[in-house]
Amino acid sequence: MSARDEFERRHRNRSTLTGMVDLKPWLAVNGLTVRDFALGIDVPLRTAEGWVSRGVVPSPGNQDKLTEYVHTHCAHYWVIAVPDGPSSEGICQRCGHVREFKNSVEYTPMVTKARDTNGKDVEGKSGA
Questions:
Q1: Where in the sequence is the domain holding 26, given as residue range(s)?
Q2: Which of 9, 32, 45, 112 could bridge across to 27 with cysteines, CB 3.0–4.6 Å?
Q3: 42, part of any domain
Q4: CB 66 within 8 A of CB 51
Q5: Tens digit of each residue's pLDDT (9 = 90 or more) over 53-71
Q6: Residue 100 Cα distances to 50, 55, 79, 87, 90, angstroms
Q7: CA distance 74 to 45
Q8: Residue 82 lies in a domain
Q9: What's the pLDDT at 121?
């Protein structure tokens, strides 16, 4: 099961105002008030209150601003799919943002110069 499938399974009954996030608990988790939110997204306070408290659906222009704001201000809680290849899909459990994660990091051994017992570099030898 992909990370997106898992997220959707767990959040079927949540609001779809921003595609995947219920704004009221999201604001609480991120320590924001509705006023902070309205100022940050540059909409009237009553508009933001409508989205958060009454479930009013934003206009398409506001939907884009809202989605961008949520994804950039979220304290992400990533659930990453089981490794299968060089990368895995991860999805934030708080805002629904999807991102690719590398499954491994290339290892480059560190090469150092060999030193003698007095701490001086020894020519032509590697410590690796």
A1: 3-76
A2: 32
A3: yes
A4: yes
A5: 888 888 888 988 888 888 8
A6: 33, 31, 11, 6, 6
A7: 20
A8: no
A9: 67
Has residue 112 been placed in a domain? no
Task: Please give the full DSSP string across the chain, using - where no structure is assigned.
Answer: --HHHHHHHHTTTS--TTSS--HHHHHHHTT--HHHHHHHHT--HHHHHIIIII-PPPPHHHHHHHHHHHHHH----EEEPPP-SSEEEEEETTT--EEEEES---------EEE-TTSPEEEEEE--
CA atoms within 13 A of residue 39's CA, in its CB half-sphere: 5
**Mean pLDDT score, 103-128:** 67
Q: What is the rounded distance in angstroms from the CA atom of residue 7 to the CA atom of residue 105? A: 26
Q: What is the mean pLDDT of the chain?
A: 79
Given this model, what pLDDT does residue 14 score?
41
Please state, in angstroms and rounded to a whole number, the distance separating the CA atoms of residues 89 and 112.
Answer: 37
For residue 86, being part of any structural domain is answered with: no
Number of domain units in the chain:
1
**Which pLDDT band holds residue 17 (cuts at 50, 70, 90)?**
very low
